[in-house]
């Protein structure tokens, strides 16, 4: 295969220069990491599943007007995406208590929240991705007030869509994390959904049994993580020709 310029390598993905200006190739690895990279493993097949699952949601979100960086899937592990100016924040949406929210406020995991809660974290692994408020975000110029509003509105639309899509196949969306970037056109930019939507960054429980089907299986040693990912793909009907 041809040698491509590597733009960025994260724990789960690699970004390469794309075939045309303004595009990148997003490659999904099998590497899993948790607890700020303290726990790592290779989960065979994870990249293939995440590529497919993320394609499924990004395509559908695009058609309902939630603009995102996805252009098209190229092969089992790669997708063509639009190059964005990444906003250095992670946006978490929570429908029920779990993980760090349960710890912080002493809430039992799975307890429904009075309403969906949005949180912002700084995307800086060396600092352990600290939680930030709108004050920090605007004071340090990570995003404008308008962009914060846009990210919140888009995150809630993604939440509504994912709740419906997962709910229809008997899966409860406990929480998820997304990232955004700026798409520039002349002197104007708009906020666009980036990264991926997969069981790496969503908490997904079987609605009936409460079985966890997401990366928490790996984080907490709850069994074969890939079985959970494959079950999600199967229920969404996107696993027909998968290994
Ligand atoms: O750990 P916490 O409860 O804050 O995680 C909330 C949600 O954000 C979970 O779905 C988790 O998978 C996701 N997350 C993520 N990347 C991080 C931190 C959390 O995808 N760096």
UniProtKB/TrEMBL annotation:
Pathway: Purine metabolism; IMP biosynthesis via de novo pathway; 5-amino-1-(5-phospho-D-ribosyl)imidazole-4-carboxamide from 5-amino-1-(5-phospho-D-ribosyl)imidazole-4-carboxylate: step 1/2. One of its GO terms (biological process) is 'de novo' IMP biosynthetic process. It is an enzyme of class 6 (ligase). One of its GO terms (cellular component) is cytosol. One of its GO terms (molecular function) is ATP binding. Residues 6-235 form the SAICAR synthetase/ADE2 N-terminal domain. Keywords: ATP-binding, Ligase, Nucleotide-binding, Purine biosynthesis. Pfam families: SAICAR_synt (PF01259). Its EC number is 6.3.2.6. Gene3D superfamilies: ATP-grasp fold, B domain, Phosphorylase Kinase, domain 1. InterPro entries: SAICAR_synt/ADE2_N (IPR028923), SAICAR_synt_PurC (IPR033934), SAICAR_synthetase (IPR050089). The keyword Nucleotide-binding applies. It catalyses: 5-amino-1-(5-phospho-D-ribosyl)imidazole-4-carboxylate + L-aspartate + ATP = (2S)-2-[5-amino-1-(5-phospho-beta-D-ribosyl)imidazole-4-carboxamido]succinate + ADP + phosphate + 2 H(+). It comes from the Bacteria. Belongs to the SAICAR synthetase family. This is Phosphoribosylaminoimidazole-succinocarboxamide synthase. It comes from Phenylobacterium parvum. The lineage of its organism: Bacteria, Pseudomonadati, Pseudomonadota, Alphaproteobacteria, Caulobacterales.
């Amino acid at each position: 295969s041809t040698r491509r310029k590597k733009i960025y390598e994260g724990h789960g993905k690699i970004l390469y220069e794309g075939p045309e200006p303004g595009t990148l190739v997003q490659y999904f690895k099998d590497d899993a990491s948790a607890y700020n990279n303290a726990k790592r493993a290779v989960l065979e097949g994870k990249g293939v599943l995440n590529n497919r699952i993320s394609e499924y949601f990004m395509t559908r979100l695009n058609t309902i007007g939630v603009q995102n960086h996805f252009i098209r899937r190229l092969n089992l592990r790669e997708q063509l995406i639009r190059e964005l100016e990444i906003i250095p924040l992670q946006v978490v949406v929570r429908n029920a208590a779990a993980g760090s929210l349960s710890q912080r406020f002493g809430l039992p995991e799975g307890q429904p929240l009075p309403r969906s809660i949005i949180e912002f974290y700084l995307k800086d692994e060396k600092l352990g991705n600290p939680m930030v408020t709108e004050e920090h975000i605007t004071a340090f110029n990570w995003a404008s007030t308008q962009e914060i509003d846009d990210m919140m509105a888009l995150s809630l639309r993604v939440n509504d869509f994912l709740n419906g899509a997962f709910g229809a196949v008997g899966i409860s969306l406990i929480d998820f994390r997304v990232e955004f970037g700026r798409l520039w056109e002349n002197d104007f930019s708009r906020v666009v959904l980036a990264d991926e939507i997969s069981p790496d960054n969503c908490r997904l429980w079987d609605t009936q049994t409460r079985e966890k089907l997401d990366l928490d299986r790996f984080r907490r040693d709850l069994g074969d993580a890939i079985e959970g990912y494959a079950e999600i793909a199967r229920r969404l009907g996107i696993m027909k020709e998968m290994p």
